[in-house]
Write a structure and sequence with these properties.
Keywords: FAD, Flavoprotein, Glycoprotein, Oxidoreductase, Signal. By secondary structure, the protein is an alpha/beta fold. The protein has helices at 9-18, 39-42, 97-105, 114-124, 159-168, 202-207, 262-272, 278-283, 321-324, 326-339, 362-378, 383-397, 443-451, and strands at 3-5, 26-29, 60-61, 74-75, 91-92, 125-127, 147-151, 184-187, 189-190, 192-193, 198-199, 216-219, 223-230, 236-244, 247-252, 257-259, 275-276, 290-291, 300-310, 350-354, 404-409, 421-431. The strands form seven sheets. Strands 8-20-21-22-19 form a five-stranded antiparallel sheet, covered by helices on one side. The chain has a four-stranded parallel sheet with strand order 12-2-1-16, with helices on one face. Strands 5-9-7-6 form a four-stranded mixed sheet. It binds 2-acetamido-2-deoxy-beta-D-glucopyranose (10 copies). One 2-acetamido-2-deoxy-beta-D-glucopyranose (NAG) is lined by residues 277, 293, 380, 382.
C-alpha cells in the first residue's frame, strides 16, 4: 500500500483522490488527532483560539532573529487531522498567475504553472455566491468540488468605511482576485460551509466524506520520525518509523511513500531520514543517504504586525462583544445554530495586497534591494537557490506584484474582555535565501523543538 504522511491539507486530498481507485490502498500517518465537533476548530469567530495551544498547534519558534531585536518568532502549524487549515483564519484565495509561473521559470515542468494548476483549483472548490461576490465569474470559481466556500454574510459597520479609506488612498478595487491578479483590495472568500456555518477543511470534506472506504486508513496520534531508505541507485523509500505514546513502530509500503508534512516538517523529515545538506546532517549525527544542500532552504512565509485601534463606540458589534455582552451573545448563538449566519460566521473579508512601491520611496526601495543583493552575494547559495532568489528579486522590483498584505479584523486578537478594539494585520512576506540571512527560519531548530 502507499503510505502517506501526514494528514494535513494536501495529504488528505491525495489520500481521498487516490482511494477513488479501488485497487489502491492508502494508509495516512498523522501526529495530531481528528477534531470533529470541536467549536474552537469549527466556529469561524473562534479563530485564533487554538493558536499556541499544544493540543492543536506544533507551536514552533525560530531561533533569535537579528533584525527583530533578537526575538524568537512564533511559527504556528496545525497539529490535527486537516493540518494548518484547521487553525488558520480561513481566507480562501489563490496567488497571482506569476506566483505559479515562477515554478515553470525554475524548470519544473509537467503543468506546474497557472494554466496547468487552474483546473485543479476549480476542482477543489464549491463556491457559493454571497454578499460582495457579484462580478465573480464562473470561469475562475469551481462549483462542484468537495470544499464549500462562502462569502462572509456578516460585516461589522467598519468594513465599508475601511474599504473606502483604502480606496481614497488610491488602492484599486479588485473584483476577482482569483483570476490571476490578487493585488488591490477585494472581498475575500472564506473556507466556511454556508450549510453549517462551520470551517471547511480537508478533515471534514476529504477525509470524513470518504471514511467508509475500505482502502483508506488514517492513523492518528502517530508521529513519523524517519523514512526508511534503502541506499542504491536509485535510493528507494521502503517504509517509515513512527512513534505512538513513546513506542516506536515501523511500517513498510508495498508501492510508494508520499511525504506531505508541510513546509516546515517535510524538509525536517527528509533531513532526519538522511536527505539534506551534509554539513547540517553531520552536526546532528545523521548518516547522509543523499546529499542535497537545497533541502529546507528558501522558505517563504508571511509574518505580521498588528495595528490596534480603539473604537469611539464600544457597542459596535465586534467578535469581542460576545465576551462582554451576554444578551448579544445569546442572540448570536441562536442565529448561528438555527440559521448558520451572524457574527459567529465572521471571517476577514477586507483583504488587500500591495507592492512595496506603495509604501517605500524609490530611494528606500533601491537601498533595501542593494542590501539584499549584497547579502545574497555573500551567502553560499547553490545554483538552484540563486535561480530562486533571482525570480524573487525581479518580483520585488515589480510594482505590479503584491508583497504586503493588509487584513481588517473586527475584533482584537489579544484583549478578549473588551469590545473596544479592532485590529489591522499588516503582513509582509519573508523571503529567506539561506539559513544565515535575515528573517531566516532554521529548520534545524525545529528538530531541536520536536526532539525535546
Ligand atoms: C458544526 O460545528 C459544531 C461545533 O463544533 C458541531 O457541533 C457540529 O456538529 C458541526 N456541524 C457539522 C455538520 O459538522
Ligand atoms: C508556545 O510558544 C510561545 C512562543 O511563541 C511560548 O510563549 C509558549 O509558552 C508556547 N506554549 C507552550 C504550551 O509551550
Ligand atoms: C513518554 O516519555 C516521557 C519522558 O520519558 C514521559 O514523561 C511521558 O509520560 C511518556 N508518555 C507516555 C504516553 O508514556
Ligand atoms: C519491512 O521490510 C524490511 C526489509 O525490507 C523488513 O526487515 C522489516 O521486517 C519489514 N517491517 C515490517 C513492519 O514489515
Ligand atoms: C558552500 O556550499 C557548498 C554546497 O552546500 C558546500 O559544499 C561548501 O562547503 C559551502 N562553503 C562554505 C564556505 O560554507
Ligand atoms: C448588548 O447587546 C444587546 C443586543 O444586541 C443590545 O441591545 C445592547 O445595547 C448591548 N449592550 C451594550 C452595553 O452594548
Ligand atoms: C433565521 O432566518 C429566518 C428567515 O430569514 C428568520 O425569520 C429568523 O428570525 C432567523 N432566526 C433567528 C434565530 O434569528
Ligand atoms: C510585473 O508583473 C506583472 C503582473 O504580474 C507582469 O505582467 C509583468 O510581466 C512583470 N514584469 C516584469 C518585468 O517581470
Ligand atoms: C481585561 O483583562 C485585563 C487582563 O486580565 C485587565 O487588566 C483589564 O482590566 C480587563 N479589562 C476589562 C474592561 O475588564
Ligand atoms: C550560520 O549561523 C550559525 C549560527 O549563528 C553559525 O553557527 C554558522 O557557522 C553560520 N554558518 C555560516 C555558513 O555562516
Amino acid at each position: 500500500m502507499p503510505a502517506k504522511f501526514s494528514g494535513g491539507t494536501a495529504g488528505l486530498v491525495l489520500a481521498a483522490r487516490l482511494t477513488e481507485l479501488s485497487d489502491v490502498t492508502v494508509g495516512v500517518i498523522e501526529a495530531g488527532v481528528l477534531r470533529l465537533g470541536d467549536a474552537v476548530v469549527d466556529t469561524p469567530a473562534l479563530m485564533g483560539q487554538s493558536l499556541f495551544n499544544p493540543d492543536y498547534d506544533w507551536n514552533f519558534t525560530t531561533i533569535p532573529q537579528v533584525h527583530v531585536s533578537q526575538r524568537n518568532i512564533p511559527i504556528n502549524r496545525g497539529k490535527m487531522i486537516g493540518g494548518s487549515a484547521g487553525l488558520n483564519f480561513m481566507i480562501w484565495q489563490r496567488g497571482s498567475k506569476q506566483d505559479y509561473d515562477a515554478w515553470r521559470q525554475l524548470g519544473i515542468g509537467n503543468g506546474w504553472d497557472w494554466d496547468g494548476l487552474l483546473p485543479y483549483f476549480l476542482k477543489t472548490e464549491a463556491v457559493h455566491p454571497g454578499p460582495g461576490s457579484a462580478g465573480v465569474s464562473g470561469k475562475f470559481h469551481g462549483q462542484s468540488g468537495p470544499l464549500p466556500i462562502h462569502y462572509d454574510n456578516f460585516d461589522t459597520p467598519l468594513e465599508g468605511p475601511y474599504a473606502q479609506a483604502l480606496e481614497s488612498l488610491g488602492v484599486y478595487l479588485n473584483s476577482d482576485p482569483e483570476a490571476g491578479d490578487s493585488t488591490g483590495l477585494f472581498n475575500s472568500a472564506a473556507s466556511v460551509d454556508p450549510a453549517t456555518g462551520n470551517r471547511s477543511y480537508s478533515a471534514v470534506n476529504y477525509f470524513l466524506a470518504n471514511q467508509d472506504r475500505d482502502n483508506l486508513v488514517v492513523l492518528q496520534g502517530a508521529q513519523v520520525t524517519k523514512i526508511n531508505l534503502t541506499p542504491g541507485n536509485p535510493i528507494v523509500a521502503t517504509g517509515a518509523e513512527f512513534v505512538v505514546d513513546n513506542i516506536t513502530y515501523s511500517v513498510n509500503a508495498t508501492k510508494e511513500i508520499i511525504l506531505s508534512a508541510g513546509s516546515i516538517q517535510t524538509p525536517q523529515l527528509l533531513e532526519l531520514s538522511g536527505i539534506g545538506n551534509p554539513n547540517i546532517l553531520k552536526e546532528f549525527g545523521i548518516p547522509v543517504v543523499y546529499a542535497n544542500p537545497d533541502v529546507g532552504e528558501n522558505l517563504q512565509d508571511h509574518t505580521h504586525v498588528t495595528s490596534q485601534f480603539e473604537l469611539n463606540d464600544p457597542t459596535i458589534p465586534t467578535i469581542n462583544l460576545l465576551n462582554v455582552n451576554t444578551t448579544f451573545e445569546a442572540e448570536e448563538q441562536a442565529l448561528y445554530h438555527i440559521n448558520h449566519t451572524g457574527i459567529y460566521t465572521y471571517t476577514i473579508s477586507d483583504v488587500s495586497f500591495h507592492a512595496l512601491q506603495t509604501f517605500w520611496s524609490p530611494a528606500e526601495l533601491a537601498q533595501s534591494l542593494t542590501t539584499l543583493r549584497n547579502e545574497i552575494q555573500a551567502a553560499n547559495l547553490s545554483k538552484w537557490q540563486r535561480k530562486q532568489v533571482q525570480i524573487q528579486l525581479t518580483d520585488l522590483e515589480n510594482a505590479s506584484v503584491g508583497q504586503m498584505e493588509l487584513l481588517f479584523f473586527g475584533s482584537d486578537i489579544t484583549v478578549t474582555n473588551s469590545s473596544k478594539f479592532v485590529d489591522i494585520l499588516n503582513f509582509g512576506s519573508i523571503q529567506c535565501t539561506g539559513r544565515n540571512i535575515s528573517a531566516e527560519v532554521p529548520f534545524i531548530l525545529v528538530h531541536r523543538v520536536s526532539d525535546a
